[in-house]
Every structure is written in C-alpha cells, then in structure tokens.
Amino acid sequence: MYTDKTMTCRDCSQSFVFTTGEQEFFASRGFTNEPSRCPECRAQRKQSQNAGGYGGGYSGGYDRPQREMFSAVCAQCGKDCQVPFQPRTDRPVYCSDCFAVQRGNSNSYSGGGGNRY
Q1: Spatial CB neighbours of 104, under 8 Å, sequence gap ≥ 6
Q2: The whole model's pTM is what?
Q3: Per-domain boundaries in the chain
Q4: pLDDT tens across 49-74, in order?
C-alpha cells in the first residue's frame, strides 16, 4: 500500500526518505500531512522549541534541562545517529527511521514506552 518517498527538506534542501514505516505510523496517528522537514531538521526544530521550557504560554519558572545526546551507529542501516541514552555494546541501537520500522514489525514487545536498545 505504501512505498518509500524521496522528499526535499524545506529547511536544509537535502533529500530524505519518507519510509513506508513512517507513512504507516503517520496514518495510524491520523496525520494527513507529510513531513516537510528531514529527520535532522525536525529534531533540531523540536529541540529549539523546547529550549524555552514548556510551550502553551506557561511561564511557571520551570526550564527543562537540556537532554544529553549520545552518538551511535544504527545497527540496521549503519547511519550515524544521536540517541538520548548511553548505548550498550550488548544491545542494538537504531536510528529513528529504522526504529520506527522495528517497532512497527515487533508485536512481541508488550512493555510500555519505547526501547531503542
């Protein structure tokens, strides 16, 4: 039903692939618009939006600390990526694209939250 789509990022003008797994995820969440930014620019934009604390006009004095990111190499595609946890050598680490595919294909995991390692 879905096929990978090569798209151009509106911020950096680089090509990126909107994978079938991502398209299925978007559809499952009811999103009707395709992403217009590459994963790196989306992450950078999200981080810059979160830099000022919580959104929505709340100014209760709470600033969320900057999340420490760690460099890793995706176990599936070999791409360099950043992850919010210290990678371990005994568990695979996936980039966001491959993680979405892994999560979509793995029905045996019954825990809550995401587990990228």
Answers
A1: 21, 24, 25
A2: 0.43
A3: 1-50, 66-107
A4: 876 555 444 444 556 678 888 899 99
